[in-house]
Design goal:
It is a single chain. This protein is of the alpha/beta class and 400 residues long. It contains 16 helices and nine strands. 54% of the residues lie in helices and 10% in strands. The two termini are 29 Å apart.
Length: 400
């Protein structure tokens, strides 16, 4: 990366860091069960809602209890259940049309990050009806209050129930882009471990590693504060202590509860301190090949951490101690390498591959350009890299 681009990136990031104390960060109100939702809606005089979810969850009956609770409470319910794993601009347009047609006043997202991202994007489009999603991508492009949003995670990974970000895919261009704005932070987050009991093992593992990626990238970046550092360390501790328990026994209530809490903490951490090149490189893989985001992050995380090198050893030492894979007396380098290896070992024990299928060499330059555009200048990464350097990560995760 040339010196002028580096200077621009660091100046931009410094501006956001200085502004942190005055930016309108907020936390959603936490509900412990879906049974609490009607009362929350009643307090806001809301009697018509759009539920955003996906076809699998609806067919499996996962949405049925919530639908019954709402209808028994006399709340008009419309359901959009076509959300794709990487939600598209078409999903957003369809859901927005249904929201308007049914005269809804509130959005409820039930599912993983995809359902919540779709609902956030719908809210953004409702708030800014004269702009399309492409015009809203980036940072602080919405700026107007969206309808009340209730986020109900059925995975413990994305942390989208507390974040200001939504990621949407344009299937025509294969471009996956983020929309970031404080107005997208949900009004309510429902953290009910029972809703995650049916999450399959492979999704438990990859979404959990997504949460770990949020915590790690938030911690090693240059825009942390005391709270986000604590959140990231605690999330890391909880994930290392519980992810494999939840993977092996999906009905382990304590493990599921702790993973939900970890995902929430990690989501809050990266909302303020941002992520890094793991996410910037992973998003184009979802846009181009529909590779699940958590899987891409799981595979990329140890590779990107190694590439950063010694500049992050001291911070990785702290994370390694929190994870229980190193002690304070270890050297920074030894602890950092132990932490990276522990991630690889955990991936292997949960049958997460070390490479990704389907990557085509001819697509790499374009994906690297998208990663560069997403990451620079926004993400306060430990080491700056341009598109050419980011290409190496795609080669490293290619299935040989």
């Amino acid at each position: 990366m040339n010196i002028f681009k580096k200077l621009w990136c660091r100046t931009f990031q410094l501006g956001f860091r200085i502004a942190q104390p005055i930016l309108p960060y907020r936390e959603p109100k936490i509900l412990d069960a879906i049974e609490e939702i009607p009362e929350a809606l009643l307090k806001e005089n809301i009697n018509s809602v759009l539920l955003v979810t996906d076809g699998f969850l609806r067919k499996s009956g996962a949405t049925a209890p919530l639908e019954k609770i709402l209808m028994d409470s006399g709340i008009h319910l419309a359901v959009y259940d076509k959300t794709q794993p990487n939600p598209t601009v078409y999903n957003v347009e369809e859901a927005k049309s249904l929201f308007i047609k049914e005269n809804c006043k509130c959005l409820i997202a039930l599912g993983g990050g995809s359902a919540m991202d779709c609902a956030k994007a719908v809210g953004a489009c409702i708030a800014r009806p004269k702009k399309n999603l492409n015009q809203l991508q980036g940072v602080l492009r919405v700026l107007k209050k969206i309808p009340t949003l209730i986020a109900i995670p059925t995975t413990a990974g994305t942390g989208s129930e507390v974040t200001l970000a939504a990621v949407i895919t344009d299937p025509d261009t294969h471009h996956k882009y983020p929309v970031n704005d404080f107005v997208l932070i949900p009004s309510y987050a429902v953290l009910d471990p029972k809703l995650t009991f049916t999450l399959p093992p492979h999704l438990t593992s990859t979404t959990g590693m997504d949460a770990l990626t949020h915590a790690v990238e938030a911690y090693i970046g240059n825009s942390t504060n005391k709270k986000t550092r604590w959140n990231a360390l605690e999330a890391t501790r909880l994930i290392f202590a519980n992810i494999e328990k939840a993977y092996k026994d999906g009905t382990d209530y304590e493990a599921r509860k702790n993973m939900l809490h970890a995902a929430y903490l990690a989501g809050e951490a990266f909302s303020i301190s941002y992520v890094g090149y793991v996410h910037a490189v992973a998003h184009p893989l979802g846009g181009q090949y529909n590779i699940p985001h958590g899987l891409a992050n799981s595979v990329l995380l140890p590779i990107v951490l190694e590439e950063y090198g010694g500049v992050i050893y001291k911070k990785l030492h702290k994370l390694a101690v929190a994870a229980g894979v190193a002690s304070d007396s270890d050297s920074d380098e030894a602890a950092a390498k132990a932490f990276i290896q522990a991630i690889r070992d955990m991936n292997a024990r949960m049958n997460i591959p070390s490479t990704l299928e389907g990557i085509q060499e001819e697509d790499i330059p374009v994906m690297a350009e998208h990663a560069d555009k997403e990451g620079n200048p926004l993400y306060p990464v430990p080491v700056l890299m341009d598109a050419k350097k980011l290409e190496k990560f795609y080669y490293k995760v290619m299935s040989k």
